Amino acid sequence: MAVTLAGNACIGQSGGPTVVINQSLVGVIEEARKHKEIKKLLGARHGTRGIMKEDFIDLFKIPGRRLELVAATPAAALGSVRHKPREEEFAVMLDVFKKHNIRYYFYIGGDDSAKSADIITGMAKIANYEMRVVHIPKTIDNNLMESDHSPGFGSAARFVACAVRGDDLDNRSLPGIKVNVIMGRDAGWLTAATVLARRKEGDGPHLIYLPEMPFTIEKFIADVKEAYAKYGRCVVCVSEGIRDPQGKLWGAIAGRQVAEALKDEYKDLFGKLEMDAFGHLQLSGTGVLADFLTGRIKEGIDVTRVRGDTFGYLQRSFVGFASKVDAREARQVGRVAVKCAVKGLDGSVAIKRRAGKKYKAYFELVALKLVAGKNKEVSKEFICPSGNDICPSFRDYGLPLVGDLPETALLEE
Amino acid sequence: MAVTLAGNACIGQSGGPTVVINQSLVGVIEEARKHKEIKKLLGARHGTRGIMKEDFIDLFKIPGRRLELVAATPAAALGSVRHKPREEEFAVMLDVFKKHNIRYYFYIGGDDSAKSADIITGMAKIANYEMRVVHIPKTIDNNLMESDHSPGFGSAARFVACAVRGDDLDNRSLPGIKVNVIMGRDAGWLTAATVLARRKEGDGPHLIYLPEMPFTIEKFIADVKEAYAKYGRCVVCVSEGIRDPQGKLWGAIAGRQVAEALKDEYKDLFGKLEMDAFGHLQLSGTGVLADFLTGRIKEGIDVTRVRGDTFGYLQRSFVGFASKVDAREARQVGRVAVKCAVKGLDGSVAIKRRAGKKYKAYFELVALKLVAGKNKEVSKEFICPSGNDICPSFRDYGLPLVGDLPETALLEE
Questions:
Q1: What percent of chain A has pLDDT over 90?
Q2: Dihedrals φ, ψ of B178, to 5°?
Q3: Is 3.40.50.460 the CATH number for B156-319+378-402?
Q4: Host H or E run for residue A91
Q5: φ, ψ (nearest 5 deg) of residue B148
Q6: Chain centroid, CA A37 distance in Å
Q7: Given an 8 Å threshold on Cβ–Cβ distance, is A75 in contact with B298?
Q8: What phi and psi, each to the nearest 5 degrees, are found at residue B132?
Q9: pLDDT at A288
């Protein structure tokens, strides 16, 4: 058995928030309180940036009633960060950890945060500073390796499924072609979840496109034409991360075309391309891809009513609509992280699924390196061979994470 | 007392759907069943278009269990229509009414539908064909004259309030400038409702712009700069219907600039401007206004993180998130319409509010002419003199319609 390591603990939140990210924070606070090895739990404001600036909040001092409300509140309560620390910044962080006798470090985030956690683990070892580091998963993108699914995904999937169900009913009542752009730069899990909106043949989404399958305008227009001819309307769900056969993001192509086409005086007004600290292109926070795709449809198909929506930040932040399973599991991964850490373990908490008909999850600590900076794509088994739809088997995977959807009905069916 | 008019009834749904529009439909079906004067209730598919084509569904044949599910289902179950009938088409409709012995006509829609209903009423009178016509209000825009509020508004307002609450939390965790574009071409009620997201000083939305107040880019940039300096971040909610001091829609200006600036080969790819049958410019289904405004901010203010979202069709169609009060009242206006019609009255059902602290609504039948083609703007008393915010008094007006919002909390406040 590992020797008990006593000292303080630190926790941070990183990357794009989810509606259940604070469930994990509160899970850590609750569990940490139970372990006398953990004297203090310091919350770092805005993640790694808060650690470097020693900008902490004493989390054991927050009353329980408030914690419950915070748990149900979307978006990182400690503040988040998109900064990728440089080597010398990691050294500063380690110094801060030493100074505050921080022996436990919990970092809630995606694959980039797992990487951060892995670097810190390595530096602490080299410096011979004993500390435990546990990465707590969070991402609406659902793209973490070693996990069946990630906390945050179920709620975002619930949101997009209900949004697309409603949008499909709207489109049924005023028929036309509708394009919805869904978050998920590198993996199409969230876009795939829009298939849950479909109850039966004829329901939208009629076409679904993921970053995992190359996307060409020619095939897209042909697909839309075919669906429109068949149903007299067409609802399309497209990931913001769709790429051309050379791997170029269509969001970037669309943005660049607008930027280049605009006169000098308006050059920066639209489609300005932005890279984040991790070198990822900014795809959210603009409607340019949806407008580009509806433009191509208007050009290619003779239909009066063509509309585009970009679901945007609502997918990861909408209040009061979390998936119950997702909220519960997000709380549990926080608790598990603390339990593992006080047992002397480092790693990333992964959610696994038991075999069997009834949904049941369990948790495992996996090596940080298996998650750090990696991307789990949508399994090929879930993507229809046509490349423009999701297989019915996805329902068995996704529905337990999302929970039952509200019932809807047509007058005749 | 009026002589009983026996015959069949017809109902249609028109314009942009809401999430409670089928509550009104089911309210009409329920109530109509109780009155032996009404032999049959014919649902016209896609409104006036269905009447002209005699495309009907016998609504008394739909079983009760299904009706309850339909009531809770967003978007016109009968199908909607945006077509504005010409005079000869109204004549065709009247012929169809005569042919099917339709003596009661219920039309669910906004101010354009009230106009349709008014025209039919007049033509029936001239033709000496006795029939009752009642307009049943519906619009997320909340812009119907004579009403305290319109069915559909409360649910859309609930959606945008929760969306902006979440978006504000997201912006708090990753600070920057965020622009949200909200539906409502001619009246800013729905955009005004975003103020309900604000719990206390410092919460967003920090700036709110309605079509009722002229909007200039210079003032906008100055406002955003000031808010950003004060809060270190800024969440802005803007109506899609904001106009320049000459009354020109900024959505149209933005669309035209892109369209003009684009090279010939891409000319139709973005910002193609579309008019609907009523001569209204299409403002929804494109992200061009949000992209235009974020572009102006990037040009005018030195801030890294500037994002725009267009809430789009989700505002009027999202499944499973209706306001309870709104759903109940939408059902009631349907019932009231039938009761009035069998009493021998024509008109438009209006929701009124009793004076007093506790919210209580009642219903009145008002003359169609008072509602037809008219637009109720946001009362000046609700708009702050600065022109960029909504007064706290709006809370008393709006919150009862929306219902209590989910509780959220910060770690420290």
A1: 86
A2: -130, 130
A3: yes
A4: helix A87-99
A5: -65, -40
A6: 33
A7: no
A8: -105, 135
A9: 85
The DSSP secondary-structure symbol of A264 reads G
Is residue B276 pLDDT above 70, yes or no? no
Q: Are strands B207-209 and A7-13 parallel, antiparallel or unpaired?
A: unpaired
Q: Each residue of A331-353: pLDDT tens digit?
A: 999 999 999 999 999 999 999 99
For residue B391, how far is the Cα from the chain centroid? 21
Q: Which of A111, A141, A203, A389 does the annotation list as catalytic? A: A141
Query: Where do the H-state alpha helices sit in B211-355?
Result: 217-231, 250-261, 288-300, 314-317, 324-342
Q: Which CATH class is domain B7-151+321-370?
A: alpha beta
Is A141 labeled as catalytic in the residue annotation?
yes
Catalytic-labelled residue, pool B111, B112, B118, B141: B141
Q: Is it true that domain A157-319+378-402 has CATH number 3.40.1280.10?
A: no
Residues of B in contact with A221 (CB under 8 A): none
Work out the minimum CA distance from B269 to partner chain A, whole angstroms: 4
Handedness of CA B28, B30, B34, B37 (dihedral sign): positive
Q: Would you state the pLDDT for residue B262?
A: 54
SS3 A242: coil
Residue type, B23: Q
Please tell me the distance from the alpha carbon of residue A250 to that of residue B269, in angstroms, as a whole number: 14
- Domain extents in chain A: 7-151+321-370, 157-319+378-402
Determine how β-strand B177-182 pairs with β-strand B207-209. Answer: unpaired
Average pLDDT over residues B347-372: 97
Spatial strand order of the sheet with B102-109 comes to: B56-58, B38-44, B7-13, B102-109, B132-137, B347-353, B361-366
Q: What is residue A270's predicted lDDT score, i.e. its pLDDT?
A: 43
ipTM for this model: 0.95
Summarised one tens digit per residue, pLDDT across range B181-200 is 999 999 999 999 999 999 99
| Chain A hits for B285, Cβ within 8 Å | 178, 294, 306-309
Mutation site, B313, B315, B402, interface A, largest A CB count within 10 A: B313
Rounded Cα distance between B228 and B235, Å, is 9
Q: Are the beta carbons of B411 and A70 separated by less than 8 Å? A: yes
- Name the nearest CA neighbour of B395 among B234, B194, B202: B194
Judge whether B129 and B101 are in contact, CB under 8 Å: no
Is-same-fold flag (A7-151+321-370; A157-319+378-402)? yes
Instruction: Give the Cα separation of A100 and A341 in Å (integer).
Output: 18
- Please, are residues A118 and A107 in contact by the beta-carbon 8 Å criterion? no
Instruction: Indicate if the pLDDT at residue A196 is higher than 60.
Output: yes
- When scoring A22, A171, A270 by the number of chain B Cβ atoms within 10 A, the one with the most, hence best to mutate, is A270
Nearest to A235 by CA among A327, A173, A286: A173
A221-225, A391-395, B211-215, B251-255: which has the minimum mean pLDDT? B251-255
Taking an 8 Å cut-off on Cβ atoms, the answer to whether A166 and B408 are in contact is: no
Q: A162 and B316 in contact by Cβ < 8 A?
A: no
